[in-house]
Amino acid sequence: MIQRLAALSAIPLATLLLSHCGSNEPGPVLVGQSKERIAEGDAIFRKGQAEEAKGDIDDAIDHYEEVAEDYPFSNHAGEARYRQAMLLDQEGDRRDAFEAYSMFLKHYPGHPKHGEALERIYEIATGAKEGEIKNRFLGLKSKIPLKETVEMLSTVKLHAPESDMAAKAQYAIGDAYLREKRYPQAVEAFRKVADEHREHPLAPEALFKVGEILLESAKRGNQNQATIDLSREAFNDYLIQFPGHKYNAEARKMIATLKKRDLNRSMEIADFYYKTGKFEAAKIYYRDIVDNSTSGKLHDKAKARLKELEN
């Protein structure tokens, strides 16, 4: 790879600009992409094939990369990029394989291997979410940072925004944030699944997850009424949008839990006002408890206090 970089320094600037323009984007076939250069790229591709057949995988990868980057108008440029990615993948170099697959998907959307490449970048991205990825050259596994995992999963969505895989990748982003206890980001990511992929089987799961995360946040000590209200709203939206889904009964239990929390909070406030002699304020909260419950200890206590205060 270092030798290739040194060799590039000897190539005339005009040729480099015409053939590459400083990026991986193919340009028009101009001076630097004559028939001779196309044939040269095809020849390098065949060298890569021969090296791959002999088991010289590193050399094969380098030649395939050279074809894809320096000879984008070769008859085998797309196949070269795919084989570069596939061999990196087989060698366990998931990061570089992901990048190569992604470039293949970007530049060769109609290639017969498009579906297989898309499957692999999704699998690599979700594998990154699960933990570690091996580096081919060091032979060591390294932890993938959350930011990089999210970027990889977002790349999957970019290559297939309307596909089943886009919904799965977005759900995986929410799950990645949740694993790292990044609760606001997890809520936002799961909401996107429900909003952008409403017909997907993961949409109801994601919306239920939103309510669940917010409820757990309230249980952990975040007594902010807005958090509790948002949780209730998410569960209600879930029940309205996805009636009959497998978590409907659980959602109703969660809503009942939130209602009980509200009643307990109202009772605490009412009792405080009652004990401090602020009876009119206490009556407001006791009345609220009676109006929002039909039976139970809280209902009976609030009803009795109202009767006492109104006499």
Model description:
The structure is a single chain. This protein is mainly α and 311 residues long. 73% of the residues lie in helices and 2% in strands. It has 15 helices and two strands. It has helices at residues 2-8, 13-19, 35-54, 57-70, 77-90, 94-107, 114-130, 146-159, 164-179, 183-196, 202-219, 225-241, 248-275, 279-291, 297-310; strands at 132-134, 141-143. The protein has a two-stranded antiparallel ribbon. Helix 6 (94-107) packs antiparallel against helix 7 (114-130) and helix 8 packs antiparallel against helix 9. The radius of gyration is 30 Å and the shape is rod-shaped. The N and C termini lie far apart (92 Å). The model is unreliable at 1-25 (pLDDT under 50).
